[in-house]
Design a protein that fits this description.
α8 crosses α12, α9 crosses α10 and α10 runs parallel beside α11. The chain is built from twelve helices and 18 strands. 36% of the residues lie in helices and 25% in strands. The strands form five sheets. Strands 7, 8, 9, 10, 11 and 12 form a six-stranded antiparallel sheet that branches. Strands 1-6-2-3 form a four-stranded antiparallel sheet, covered by helices on one side. The protein is elongated, with a radius of gyration of 27 Å. It folds into three domains: 72 residues, ATP-grasp fold, A domain (Dna Ligase, domain 1), CATH 3.30.1490; 130 residues, 2-Layer Sandwich (D-amino Acid Aminotransferase, Chain A, domain 1), CATH 3.30.470; 157 residues, 3-Layer(aba) Sandwich (Rossmann fold). Bound molecules: guanosine-5'-diphosphate and manganese (II) ion. The site of guanosine-5'-diphosphate has 16 residues, from β2, β7 and β10. Manganese (II) ion (MN) binds next to loops. Its EC number is 6.2.1.5.
């Protein structure tokens, strides 16, 4: 099993290998909070189980909170070399003086362990090996011999760590070895293992692991409680995963009224209106999800959104709250009718429009003769209607 960078750093951290402070975040809100705690500048790094993130635009520096959120929002929907981004790591940005590469892996042919290292780190080791083959050192740790500080120091010297780094490099090599053994890893790679600090202040310089890749031996999972702590968060909710694939902002809330709107503020108010109506009607009906379709609100986006929301078996009714802007409510109305027909939908949909061509859009829906589609002029009215219809379908009549 391959680990995400943030999980790999956790294991390095446990061995006392220096890594810059970092917090894992999965949405704008978490990123803002994380960045404020880490401080500025910070690095926003895509969490995917694949290398070359830097070149793919998945590693960016931010100098303040707004920049951190903006850069995270450009990275979170990304797919890098076929891998969907599962979140971002917000890490302290360090001043890099030099980049090394070090890895320990299983060598199946010689039945021992390979240490691969070079003073030309930063890029992928395959590239370094091609361009500067003489700089890449391959050393072995014998499976039966003890790899101790003396052996680690010898190794650090032969790798060519600059003199002042040798002692710390040896410590890190030893700790990498412990990380490798303790966790039954097949690979522990640090790239870059960077010399960081102020170029004019010798005492500030030190080695730090800025990126890490760790693979664990699946055959040893039983010895580690099945590695439950490393379960992939991206597959936890299938609805959220599907929405992410379509670039939609969706949060699963597990109530009965599906909510679709454009603009985060409008969708939040819609959620409050549904919860309020559920309380007032004494049914305790709640929103099933948050879904912000953003600015476009085209027919195609509406169809995708409706499909995702309606596929949730807990959803009994849908509340669509759209503010017509560049896309007029007439287009949105036609999108809703098309999608509803395409999906063979039987669940009630309550629509409220405001803005560009709102009245006309509502008229189209009202006269479409589709018994599942209801319209309302106000947000409160629409929310109340949607809550009422959901309660009826769920058999939760009011308890007064
Ligand atoms: P990868 O491309 O997937 O291997 O991602 P890395 O985490 O290795 O980041 C790629 C490159 O971004 C590194 O080699 C660094 O040059 C740069 N980088 C990463 N973290 C920092 C940092 O804290 N400060 C600076 N200045 N650059 C960084
Ligand atoms: Mn790297």
């Amino acid at each position: 099993m391959d680990l995400y960078e943030h999980q790999a750093r956790e294991l390095l951290d446990e061995q006392g290998i220096p890594t810059p402070g970092a917090i894992f975040a999965q949405n704008s809100h978490e990123v803002a909070e994380a960045a404020d705690r880490i401080g500025y500048p910070c690095v926003i790094k895509a969490q995917v189980k694949i290398g070359h993130r830097g070149q793919a635009g998945g590693v960016k520096i931010a100098h303040n909170r707004d920049e951190a959120v903006l850069k995270a929002e450009s990275i979170l929907p990304m797919t890098i070399h076929g891998h969907k981004v599962s979140g971002v790591l917000v890490a302290e940005a360090k001043n890099i003086l030099h980049e090394y590469y070090v890895s320990i892996s299983v060598d199946r042919t010689s039945r021992d362990y390979d240490v691969l290292a070079t003073a030309n780190g930063g890029t992928e080791v395959e590239t370094i090996a091609k361009e500067h083959p003489e700089s890449v050192k391959r050393l072995h740790i014998n499976a039966l011999d003890d790899f101790d500080l003396e052996a680690a120091t010898q190794m650090a010297e032969s790798i060519g760590f600059y003199h002042a780094d040798t002692e710390q490099a040896a410590q890190i090599l030893l700790k990498m070895w412990r990380c490798f053994k303790d966790n039954d890893a097949t690979l522990v790679e640090i790239n870059p293992l960077a010399k960081i600090g102020d170029p004019d202040d010798e005492s500030s310089k030190q080695l730090s692991a800025l990126d890490a890749k760790i693979s664990l031996d699946d055959n040893a999972a039983f010895r580690h409680d099945g590695w439950k702590r490393f379960e992939d968060p991206i597959v936890s909710d299938p609805f959220e995963q599907r929405a992410r694939e379509h670039g939609l902002h969706y949060v699963h809330l597990h109530g009965e009224v599906g909510v679709i709107g454009n603009g985060a503020g409008l969708v939040m108010s819609s959620l409050d209106a549904v919860s309020g109506a559920g309380e007032e009607q004494g049914t305790n009906i709640k929103p099933a999800n948050f879904l912000d379709i953003g600015g476009g609100a085209s027919a195609a986006v509406m169809a995708e959104s409706l499909e995702i929301v309606l596929s949730d078996p807990q959803v009994e009714s849908v509340f669509i709250n759209v503010y017509g802007g560049i896309t007029s409510c007439v287009e949105v109305a036609n999108g809703i009718l098309e999608a509803s027909a395409q999906l063979n939908n039987a669940k009630p949909i309550v629509v409220r429009f405001d803005g560009n061509a709102a009245a006309e859009g509502l008229r189209i829906l009202a006269t479409a003769n589709n018994p599942t589609i209801h319209v309302s002029e106000t947000m409160e009215g629409a929310a109340a209607r949607a809550a009422e219809l959901a309660a009826k379908a769920a058999g939760k009549e009011e308890v007064r």
